[in-house]
Amino acid sequence: MRKPFVAGNWKMNTDSRTGVELAEKIVSATQQIAGRTVDVALCPPFVYLQSVVGALSSSSIAVGAQDIYIETKGAFTGEISASMLKDIGCIYVLCGHSERRHVIGEPDELVGKKVTAAISGGLLPILCVGELLAEREADQTIEVVTRQIKTGLAGLGAEKLSAVTLAYEPVWAIGTGLTATPQQAQDVHSFIRELLGRMYDNRLAEQIRILYGGSAKPGNAADLMSQQDIDGLLVGGASLKADDFVAIIQAAVKE
Ligand code: PGA
Questions:
Q1: Is the CB of residue 6 less than 8 Å from the CB of residue 61?
Q2: Cβ atoms of residues 29 and 246 within 8 Å
Q3: Which among 6, 66, 127, 215 is the best mutation to test ligand 1's pocket, defined by most ligand atoms within 8 Å of the CB?
Q4: Following DSSP, what letter does each residue of 99-127 receive, concatenated?
Q5: What separation, in Å, do the N-terminal and C-terminal C-alpha atoms of the chain show?
Q6: Rg for the chain, CA atoms, rounded
Q7: Once rounded to an integer, what is the mean pLDDT over residues 50-62?
Q8: Predicted TM-score (pTM) of this structure
């Protein structure tokens, strides 16, 4: 049975005070369940990672970074390596979030190298995939997700796949208030699991957690989580409000 996993992606929000306060509120409200019946991670901006690691130190909530660079060290101005993130206590890292792909312009191949670099550096990558609205309307969802997963996991041997979490985030649902219906999400999630089964093997595919992201909120979290292949949620906007995020974490616990 896959343990549910809820990750909060703070994007470029919070400051040094509000980030720590948010983390502390989440810790105190989830003490009984975080790390036990549900895994939880917070992904603050780079500059606040260390203070959030501190705020979470006595909890079972993990910290994740929102991005990573593919090299280990050297002349790469502005970039941050896996070993640096691990050094300050990060466990997870988002790779290929849709804003990195579509706002910053990261190509699929770079995302794949980031997944590999994360694992080599001892981090657990959360590989994000998802189609644009125009791609969904043109019936290209499966094609886009297949390409992003195949390139995102390129060169990754079966022995390393268990380090990876997948996140299906339809771009048209991110930050828009539009959520994929539980059935729409389930259809893509089950396709992703089947694809992983074909690329690796079914036993391994059954173990991989696939999160849904895109306007997840307290009001839709339980419905989404009731789907067989939805193993957790990657939450943007609602992760910035402690009460909402805690309600989502509680809703993610599968009895
Ligand atoms: P949202 O963002 O919950 O604000 O839609 C999700 C994400 O980008 O991971």
A1: no
A2: yes
A3: 215
A4: HIIIII---HHHHHHHHHHHHHTT-EEEE
A5: 11
A6: 17
A7: 97
A8: 0.98
pLDDT value, residue 179:
84
Q: Is 137 a catalytic residue?
A: no
Considering the segment(s) 5-252 as one domain, its CATH architecture is: Alpha-Beta Barrel (3.20)
CB 238 within 8 A of CB 247: no
Q: Is 97 a catalytic residue?
A: yes
Give the span between the Cα atoms of 115 and 103, in whole angstroms. Answer: 19
State the distance from the centre of ligand 1 to the C-alpha of 245, rounded, in angstroms.
12
Quote helix, strand, coil % in the chain, to nearest 5.
Answer: 50, 15, 35
- The Å distance, Cα 212 to ligand 1 centre, comes to 10
Query: Does residue 68 register a pLDDT over 90?
Result: yes
Distance, in Å, from the CA atom of 255 to the CA atom of 69, rounded to the nearest integer, reads 38
Q: Look-up: residue for tokens 């190298």?
A: 113
